[in-house]
Design brief:
Strand order of the largest sheet: 6-11-10-9-8-7
Order of helices and strands: HEEHEEEHEHEHHEHEHEHEHE
CATH superfamily of the largest domain: Aldolase class I
Mean pLDDT: 96
CATH class of the largest domain: Alpha Beta
CATH topology of the largest domain: TIM Barrel
Largest sheet: 6 strands, parallel
Number of strands: 12
Number of domains: 2
CATH architecture of the largest domain: Alpha-Beta Barrel
Number of helices: 10
Length: 275
């Protein structure tokens, strides 16, 4: 599993700040006579949710102004109530005003993902793992998968090199699903095979690989497939899972449910910075 580290945080935050500051900096803040005055600010939650991305938020202020003192009032992965303080900042006026939007963008984006993930997790309980997918924002995958974990979810593969996932288009491009699996087994990598129907499942049963992914299958057929698996494989479901049907899917006994929407469709968390 790839981890968020200081180098990654610094790199992505610098790129984000450059979008705001290129080519001539903050023209409005430069007008302020008090721009070098040390002031205090607070970041306030404007909704209930799960917080994440605080290190990204803090880094934005610290890159703009080395004098920054950023005090977290809550840890990543913790639930917060509306109107509670998320963090306190002490820095120059210009530091706070220049970094504010970039800092909040990271915080709100990550916290939105963690909050939505946690809603799914609460629906299914501890027996079923809620997993994200590779449906992530380009260049922000590590942040978004980190946010999923802080919401109580689990990460699917980070990239194409992590494991072998034999999907529909791979099968359609191969002469035989069995031959493709045999080739995969030789690599000694973790293998997941996507299955669309019970006949396809019967074709691969008995082959030695880790996980079967049931794709867009109705729940009755899913239950029949799970009985055939008899705990020989880790099982996963994927396809249009949402907050209305996630509990019904989990009750089938499937081990994991992939939910692309927790990264690609999460609403931004609502917070604001007050001086």
């Amino acid at each position: 599993m790839q981890k968020v580290n200081r180098k990654y945080i610094n790199t992505v935050v610098k790129k984000a700040l450059s979008e705001d500051l290129f080519p001539k900096g903050d023209l409005t803040t430069n007008l302020l006579a008090s721009r070098n005055k040390i002031i205090k600010a607070r970041i306030i939650a404007k909704q209930d949710g799960v917080i994440s991305g605080l290190d990204f938020c803090a880094e934005a202020f610290k890159i703009v102004g080395k004098e920054t003192i950023f005090k977290k009032k809550i840890k990543d992965g913790k639930k917060i109530k509306k109107n509670k303080v998320i963090a306190e900042i002490k820095a120059k006026t210009k530091t706070i005003l220049i970094a504010e939007r970039t800092a909040l963008n990271f915080l709100n984006h990550a916290s939105g993902i963690s909050t939505l993930t946690n809603k799914f997790v609460d629906k299914v309980g501890k027996k079923t793992k809620i997993c994200c997918t590779r449906k992530t924002t380009p260049n922000l995958r590590l942040l978004e998968k980190y946010a999923v974990r802080k919401g109580g979810g689990y990460n699917h593969r980070f990239n194409l090199s992590d494991e072998i996932l034999i999907k529909e288009n791979h099968i359609n491009s191969s002469s035989s699903i069995k031959n493709l699996i045999y080739q995969a087994i030789k690599t000694k990598k973790l293998i997941t095979v996507e299955i669309e129907n019970i006949n396809q499942l019967k074709e691969v049963l008995g082959l030695k690989f880790k996980r079967i992914l049931f794709d867009n299958m109705n729940l009755n057929e899913l239950k029949r497939c799970l009985k055939l698996c008899k705990d020989k494989y880790e099982t996963e479901y994927s396809g249009n899972a949402n907050l209305n049907n996630i509990k019904k899917i989990s009750i089938t006994g499937v081990n994991r449910i992939s939910v692309g929407s927790i990264t690609h469709s999460a609403n931004s968390f609502d917070s604001s910075l007050l001086i």
